[in-house]
């Protein structure tokens, strides 16, 4: 033990200087202090968790479609009266939308800064580079995120504003959903499925990564974080895909 | 055994560089990868060519000097093994082996396979030390350390600072290195006085050196010749958050 402790301290003060370190690096090092990469990651973790909470609440709401048109439409209208009479009608909804927008922007802005740094950190690529060993989910975080963003924009135009919806009746969201996933609009269903699967992969790595960023540091905790990430992603994907599947199979019409 | 190596040749930092193919014949399967390059260099010198420059020192896997990406993997195909401890028996007769330097903006190529790793020294200088009275070594048992902490500190301290984590990271991040250094001092009582400033300063130095951020992909720990665990990055993150809180209060 005593020996070990000495070694720990000895290693600490022993800074290795590469023998051939001749090139002056001072000019290459950015003199500007960078925003801490861990701080950016913490912002991503916190906003990401906020968005996952929203996704789960949204999913539970979606599943009301299995209780029929009346129940689903009633739920949709209720969303406008949440927190009344404390707040005027629809205020809660707008506050929540504002919060989600801020979270999305902060998440994407941090990701963009980190992605740009990562690109700049390796200006010369490897000639021989086998497939990166990290999981598929980890490798597709950035482009997967872009797919999800594009989908969210489409989704708001489709089912919130009704602009791109064939029915677009704000009073009857049930009808809008059924019209959306009609068989002749297979491309909408395809895009929806692709986006949901992208969300699943994004969260599979994202939930684990958020836990790590917020300080998860034991082997047991890592197993729990990875397992939770997988289960939470699978439940979310299943919950969201149930709706178009039900419409297509005629279970919901 | 006879093999072919395709080696990155670059005369200096201004040169663009290119892969050059060499035949290496009659290599013993028991030769290390570096000894194979020594044989190649002897031949190049006899032919009047410029030998391949590469970093090496102890050839015992503990100095952290050897630094080459072999067939796209830092330190080659064997897990938890430095290039100097990698033997040619892990390759097959007739193989074509690609050898490249660490690739990172913060590790510019000096010549061929030699890169400048001063950026790591700057991270160490920023906080990889403790404040202690100099002089004779204190009695080892004067400061008790819980066994669990001592073991984890020692595991972190096995980092030899070779830079394979940076070479393998898809983001060119030095987070595993920084995390190991922050943990091995932060786990023992002697490292507590500077615990907060250490993590803040070393992280700032890693970010300012032009390394990327961590995405928890885990490439680093896979190639690490000392198997530094990825969980230490979680510890760094937790220490960072605590340090931020303390510095604001």
UniProtKB/TrEMBL annotation, chain B:
Pfam families: Fer2_3, Fer4_8. Residues 150-180 form the 4Fe-4S ferredoxin-type domain. SUPFAM superfamilies: 2Fe-2S ferredoxin-like (SSF54292), alpha-helical ferredoxin (SSF46548). It comes from the Bacteria. Residues 18-103 form the 2Fe-2S ferredoxin-type domain. Its cofactor is [2Fe-2S] cluster; [3Fe-4S] cluster. Coiled coil: none annotated. Keywords: Iron, Iron-sulfur, Metal-binding. Belongs to the succinate dehydrogenase/fumarate reductase iron-sulfur protein family. This is Succinate dehydrogenase. It comes from Paractinoplanes durhamensis.
């Amino acid at each position: 033990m005593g020996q070990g402790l000495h070694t720990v301290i000895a290693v600490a003060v022993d800074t290795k200087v590469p023998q051939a370190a001749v090139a002056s690096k001072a000019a290459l090092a950015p003199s500007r202090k960078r925003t801490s990469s861990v701080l950016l990651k913490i912002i991503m973790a916190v906003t990401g968790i906020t968005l996952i909470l929203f996704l789960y609440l949204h999913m539970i709401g979606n599943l009301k479609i299995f209780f029929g048109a009346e129940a689903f439409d009633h739920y949709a209208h209720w969303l406008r009266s949440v927190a009344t009479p404390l707040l005027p009608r629809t205020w809660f909804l707008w506050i929540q939308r504002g919060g989600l927008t801020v979270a999305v922007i902060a998440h994407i802005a941090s990701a963009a800064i980190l992605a740009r740094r990562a690109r700049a950190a390796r200006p010369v690529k490897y000639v021989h580079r086998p497939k990166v060993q990290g999981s598929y989910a980890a490798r597709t975080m950035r482009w997967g995120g872009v797919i999800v963003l594009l989908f969210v924009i489409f989704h708001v135009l489709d089912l919130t504003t009704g602009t791109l919806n064939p029915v677009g009746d704000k009073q009857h969201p049930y009808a809008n959903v059924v019209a959306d996933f009609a068989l002749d609009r297979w491309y909408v269903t395809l895009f929806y499925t692709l986006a949901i699967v992208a969300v699943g992969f994004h969260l599979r790595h994202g939930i684990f990564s958020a836990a790590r960023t917020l300080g998860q540091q034991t082997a047991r905790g890592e197993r729990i974080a990875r397992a939770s990430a997988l289960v939470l992603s699978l439940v979310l994907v299943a919950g969201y895909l149930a709706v178009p599947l039900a419409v297509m199979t005629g279970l919901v019409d | 055994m006879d093999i072919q190596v395709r080696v990155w040749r670059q005369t200096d930092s201004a040169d663009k560089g290119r892969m050059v193919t060499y035949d290496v014949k009659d290599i013993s399967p028991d030769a290390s990868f570096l000894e194979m390059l020594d044989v190649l260099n002897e031949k190049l010198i006899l032919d009047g060519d410029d030998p391949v420059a590469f970093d090496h020192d102890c050839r015992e896997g503990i100095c952290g000097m050897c630094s080459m990406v072999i067939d796209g993997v830092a330190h080659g195909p064997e897990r938890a093994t430095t290039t100097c401890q990698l033997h040619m028996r892990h390759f097959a007769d007739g193989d074509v082996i690609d050898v490249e330097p660490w690739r990172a903006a913060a590790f510019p190529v000096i010549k061929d396979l030699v890169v400048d790793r001063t950026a790591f020294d700057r991270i160490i200088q920023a906080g990889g030390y403790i404040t202690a009275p100099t002089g004779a070594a204190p009695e080892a048992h004067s400061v008790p350390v819980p066994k669990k902490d001592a073991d984890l500190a020692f595991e972190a301290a096995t980092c030899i600072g070779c830079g394979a984590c940076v070479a393998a990271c898809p983001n060119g991040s030095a987070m595993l290195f920084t995390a190991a250094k922050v943990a091995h001092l932060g786990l023992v009582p002697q490292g507590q006085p500077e615990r907060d400033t250490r993590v803040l300063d070393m992280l700032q130095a890693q970010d300012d050196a032009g390394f990327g951020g961590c995405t928890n992909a885990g490439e680093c720990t896979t190639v690490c010749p000392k198997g530094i665990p990825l969980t230490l990055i979680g510890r760094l993150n937790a220490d960072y958050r605590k340090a931020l809180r303390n510095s604001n209060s």
